[in-house]
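Minutes, project check-in

Agenda point 3 was the complex the collaborators sent over. CS summarized: four entities, 1412 residues total, and the question is how they sit relative to each other. Sequences were read into the notes so everyone works from the same version.
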Amino acid sequence: MRDSQLGIGVVGYGYWGPNIVRNFSINAATRVVGVSDLNPGRLGAVKQLYPGVETTRRYEDLLKDASIDAIAIATPVHTHYELALAALRAGKHVLVEKPLATSSELVTRLIEEADRRGLTLMVDHTFLYTPAVQRIRELLLSREIGDIYYYDSTRASLGLFQKDVNVIWDLAVHDISIIHHILDKDPIAVSATGSCHVVGSPENMAHITLFFADACVAHVSVNWLSPVKVRQTFIGGSRKMIVYDDLEPTEKIKVYDKGITLDGSPEDAHQFRIGYRAGDMWAPHISPTEALQTEVEHFVDCVRTGGQPISSGVSGLRVVEVLEAASCSIAKQGAPVLLREPHGIRQRARAIA
Amino acid sequence: MRDSQLGIGVVGYGYWGPNIVRNFSINAATRVVGVSDLNPGRLGAVKQLYPGVETTRRYEDLLKDASIDAIAIATPVHTHYELALAALRAGKHVLVEKPLATSSELVTRLIEEADRRGLTLMVDHTFLYTPAVQRIRELLLSREIGDIYYYDSTRASLGLFQKDVNVIWDLAVHDISIIHHILDKDPIAVSATGSCHVVGSPENMAHITLFFADACVAHVSVNWLSPVKVRQTFIGGSRKMIVYDDLEPTEKIKVYDKGITLDGSPEDAHQFRIGYRAGDMWAPHISPTEALQTEVEHFVDCVRTGGQPISSGVSGLRVVEVLEAASCSIAKQGAPVLLREPHGIRQRARAIA
Amino acid sequence: MRDSQLGIGVVGYGYWGPNIVRNFSINAATRVVGVSDLNPGRLGAVKQLYPGVETTRRYEDLLKDASIDAIAIATPVHTHYELALAALRAGKHVLVEKPLATSSELVTRLIEEADRRGLTLMVDHTFLYTPAVQRIRELLLSREIGDIYYYDSTRASLGLFQKDVNVIWDLAVHDISIIHHILDKDPIAVSATGSCHVVGSPENMAHITLFFADACVAHVSVNWLSPVKVRQTFIGGSRKMIVYDDLEPTEKIKVYDKGITLDGSPEDAHQFRIGYRAGDMWAPHISPTEALQTEVEHFVDCVRTGGQPISSGVSGLRVVEVLEAASCSIAKQGAPVLLREPHGIRQRARAIA
Amino acid sequence: MRDSQLGIGVVGYGYWGPNIVRNFSINAATRVVGVSDLNPGRLGAVKQLYPGVETTRRYEDLLKDASIDAIAIATPVHTHYELALAALRAGKHVLVEKPLATSSELVTRLIEEADRRGLTLMVDHTFLYTPAVQRIRELLLSREIGDIYYYDSTRASLGLFQKDVNVIWDLAVHDISIIHHILDKDPIAVSATGSCHVVGSPENMAHITLFFADACVAHVSVNWLSPVKVRQTFIGGSRKMIVYDDLEPTEKIKVYDKGITLDGSPEDAHQFRIGYRAGDMWAPHISPTEALQTEVEHFVDCVRTGGQPISSGVSGLRVVEVLEAASCSIAKQGAPVLLREPHGIRQRARAIA
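CS then shared the predicted structure for the full assembly.
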């Protein structure tokens, strides 16, 4: 029976790695063969919990292991490209923690390598697999919310300061991936401001505005230096509005039947025309399924069928392009930076999908 | 005894006017002599509650009334300048709802008129008189928070869409005045983005970043189209951090003894140097005093002593200058707009104060 | 026009009196003629806000005033009976703050006096007039909640310690009146425990269980010595459950489509039969109307039509009977006290209604 | 090195068992040797996560295994006595999920058996090992709260209905153990009411009042049929008051510097004597340590040193005696039931401790 299981190697057992290992361990279709980490203490922790898993300080050992079909990478961002490329070249399917790599150029190379070899390349945009985000996407697709006016999100906590990327590459990446997933359209420009309160560190606080071709706008506020944890998103529509609070244990999504009404003829548009509608609130039941469990299942599916993951390399590319543009705008104190039209590799990927 | 009371005329009995009238009525040192409004129904409401107060549709009647010493103006923003100027010219002290006027130029003229006549000109930046903001200011002045890293505020609700000003002139004005009051320094540049979801209306949603000469940064998010009311401010410091939620009935201010610690020598600044400190939280008792009551007392004091109000015309000018710069940046999709150095009339006012 | 207005006299201008006066002042169908209070300072406060209202330290002055049609009594509980009786004997309709009087015997006498004279006797069970309680009653009547399993309420705050009644006569009275109103059935027995933490004062904390003839149970927890204010009620039904939090600014009522399901045949009742149903939550829009405004309108209606008030004397009697039984059970450390069957005067009242 | 580890056998891998296994697995001083459960599916789950652990459907296998030093029992309550007795007779130390057994008589026999054999008998009153309860105990011991007026707790959720015990044996048991631990005195009587909304099931909702020899009182409200989860405790003292909300992610304990003050001479005790003090609130930092981890360490310590556990058999006996008395009072609709004086085995245990 074991033969039919997908063999998994995990690189990195720091903050996120243990969740990866646990979820691949629970999944009946996969078997964690080995874990690599530079820190022997962490490898000891693996052995304590999973005596049957091989541990090594050399990730190359995982690449050489023929019983390993896929590699999950949960290491610092600046190592993603090199590790993912090596894994693809060793013929392994790859799941990479977000963001995919430190630049859109490197991401493009990974996509091309995976395409060339017919391997699955998936980025761990975990939130796309949460029941909450899936429900929001359904609500938007069903037109229950109406035209989307805005997405406005705050993601803040105390730490963890990253050394190799600033706060937008660490936290805003979640929102950018969610925005792409639920709105299903590309921003055309970005304005962002950021600030750094620890000399020599990357920006620890940032505010990003994404402009779209229509009146829709998205704003993302991220902060590593907040006294309390915040994970809150407001989505405003012409018919209803959503408040999504990921820290709520059960009522994560609240749908408000509230909004404005426009009265009067178009001629006297400036006279007495805005009314307010205050209706009921409704919190759909959200299943408590762990996102990573759903994601692991989806990864296995994609590996087996060759299907395009929801959080494919191309999806990861779009996110990284926005992060690059936002970083560029931060350097110019908020001056808008245009995003290029989706083209080339992305259009190809779309044609495939 | 009545002779020693300050006679008050109130122009405008719409949303805010009733609060003005009630607070001047409660105050033993003042007497509301008359109220003007264009709407007869509202004047009827005045008569029902305050049978002794004169009502009129013509505000000029108030200006001519010798028993009125001071005029409070609670009308739409675009009328502030004209009404305030007329009142000053009639020799009345003036309290104007925020913002003082629609441009820094008009505000400057009002300041000059009041200066010339030796009359009190005060702007109703109500939040400066709340026990909560006063307590925050004390905490900052006492250095308990340390160096201020950021002020990050969200002010959102459903409505009321203003017809003559956009959301920053209506809501962000509160935060701009608070920032000036508690940080006691001037921003040097502004980046702002805004969006409009009702054709023909001013912007109903905006995000503003204020840059200062040092690492301190302020961000204000305002929204007229939010499903729920939000009045939340985070203030980060090098020693402690504050969360101020104005909607909390009693624990409006929470002070967190949390933050980061910098370990290691300056040489290896990029290596393992950031630690986290998670300590106690403390919510100082905040008196439930109504801000407008304190403000009315302060206004009476200033009129009697000739002293400079906390929310003086000059203070209102600084706020309007930031609002102008933000509006300008919005038009340029976030490109930063520099604020000019305080000078001329403002320096004069400072010298006086 | 004034002649058609109902003339109102208010006895007592302490904690609740100002709300009474304000609401009768706002109501176009009523006119506050006079206010009596023993404290001259309070009478001064009346004059400051309502120059046209007569003030007096002798409530007898109000009884003699022919322009007064109805008397509202907002004084300490132990004075209710005497004041209400005098007002009825003077031919005035009467609205009395809760509870109606200090014993069911005295309440009965007031009911008889009012009946004899054909006057309206209404008790100020304010919560019955809140949009929230009205909505809950509708939900229960519509059978949307199913069979009612329980009503479990907590009503706590710091102060105000009453001198003449214990905490159940001050706070539990609200819940008892709500329970009667929304469940529309009478409890058959009461068990209550209480404790006193200030020597010489009445009980400041109590827990009351009301037993009904069926499986339904009600529990009320009240506390004058709580660090935070709590106004929370859980209502469990066979189909849905309600959480009613009166301190929530807008979402006061949340209806949960949750519960248990009973699977399996009755024979194996003890085997694997309970399932759980976790569905959506729904918060109906609740109008922000002030309860006292609705109550004043209802009082005027009853006076004019001779109709039976929702919070009639008889309704007040049922509440006082439960309070008496609870006090009796407290003295016996929780031993259950039976409630007598509704009879006599109450049945008569029902026949009328 | 493994030889020095304590070998652990776990009986029951249902709701709580996985937490037991995980915490003994993480602890470096213990090794989970085997797990027994009647359900093969659950044993499969053990094997998937812990390939090195033996699994069996016969708990006798664990008793015979010489490499097992201690048995942890996480099975339905009615099996505790038999399983624990068998384990003690097999010479194993025992950790039993709460409550220890279904009657004080059976608990006493277990205590005697463990005493006779010099084995550790510990009951899994998990909350005693939470950083929050430990902090509350410190606050009470330090006299910072003053005299304790009351402990008032609500513990509610939807499910899980137990088949063999009612809600007080399942949920109130937590509070009873906490009350004993932090107040360090015995109640003298109990009044309780309960109700059952599922025919043939034990009570699913109950309210318990514990009377003490002094003015202190404790109340515990428990409910299996609540739409939302509640874990909230109020502790009132003469100097300060505590609100402990176990569902708060970080600020679990809030200490309020609030209360009443008694003014005036004792003679006019009934006149104007109660004042209110509204001061600051303070939330001490609570470590996020998992209670079961601390508990497992404590269990290992007790086994090694022969020391008396904080949640010893005797501690478990006191809790069960209160549960018995409460059940008895429920049957009498709240009539108070006296608790016997601590004596015999308990006094002996105390003398030892």
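Noted in discussion: Chain A touches chain B through 57 residues (CB under 8 Å).
Follow-up: revisit at the next meeting once the mutant set is ready.
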